[in-house]
Design goal:
With about 250 residues, the protein is mainly α. It folds into 2 domains: about 190 residues, no CATH class; about 50 residues, no CATH class. The chain is about 80% helix and about 0% strand. Helix 3 runs parallel beside helix 6 and helix 4 packs antiparallel against helix 6. The relative contact order is 0.12.
């Protein structure tokens, strides 16, 4: 069981440290933003944040299920990402419609609103990767938070304070910082994203076995690979381990 491998105390301390760090850097970033933005731009930034947050309420449809299945040892990472991609597309269309309406009704800059639309798919991917990591390596979510804050503060200072890009600089900062968090979560969660199915190659099998601490000898890899080719779905952890056990008993 993956749950037995989770370092609860370590994850808790890392989460606490990341929260404190995030509070400090977040406060500094807000001070920079409030001192550089005009009241109208600050209001637009707040509006954009609210819109993205409202669209993100679609994510728990996938998030809770993903964390539960990962914790049970099922390889659902890739399925979760594909499902999240579909939902993010729906969210993007909803956001775009609202952005056009807001621009027409309030006279807000449509270019700024559409630039912020990039945050919708990135946020969905980010949240999905966080849900994946939460099921087997909770501290990875905290590492992602630290990466986000480390990217946000210097980039924000450069674009907003030094280069005076105003709200465009704020949005570019958030997009880049979120992208950095995504990279960290993807690297730390890749063991749950690489699965074995009918479209997988032998390299997937080798990687999976090594991640489980199993020596990928040629006959074992071939057995799992053949089983995957005969299946019409992703193999479960138990199905792969049954092949390993049968091979060991020979």
């Amino acid at each position: 069981m993956i749950l037995s491998n989770i370092r609860v105390t370590y994850s808790g301390f890392i989460a606490f440290g990341a929260s404190v760090f995030s509070s400090v850097t977040g406060l500094i970033f807000v001070i920079i933003v409030t001192r550089q933005l005009e009241p109208e731009d600050f209001g637009l930034w707040t509006l954009i944040g609210s819109l993205v947050a409202y669209i993100a309420i679609l994510h728990p449809i996938i998030g809770y299920w993903t964390t539960r299945e990962i914790a049970r040892g099922e390889k659902v990472g890739r399925t979760s990402i594909f499902s999240s991609g579909f939902l993010s597309g729906v969210g993007f269309l909803i956001y775009s419609g609202i952005a056009i309406y807001v621009s027409y009704s309030l006279g807000a800059d449509l270019l700024v609103l559409m630039l912020a639309s990039i945050l919708v798919p990135i946020s969905f991917l980010n949240n999905t990767l966080g849900s994946i990591c939460l099921g087997f390596k909770p501290q990875a979510v905290s590492y992602g938070t630290v990466a986000f804050e480390l990217g946000k503060l210097p980039v924000g200072f450069l674009l907003v304070y030094v280069m005076q890009l105003e709200i465009i600089g704020v949005l570019i900062t958030l997009i880049l910082a979120t992208f950095m968090r995504t990279i960290v979560l993807m690297v730390l969660g890749k063991t749950q994203i690489i699965d074995i199915g009918p479209m997988s190659g032998k390299s997937n099998v080798v990687y999976w076995l090594r991640n489980e601490g199993i020596e990928p000898d040629e006959s074992l890899v071939e057995g799992i690979f053949n089983l995957a080719k005969m299946s019409d779905r992703i193999l479960t952890h138990n199905e792969i381990m049954s092949v390993v056990e049968n091979k060991n008993s020979e």
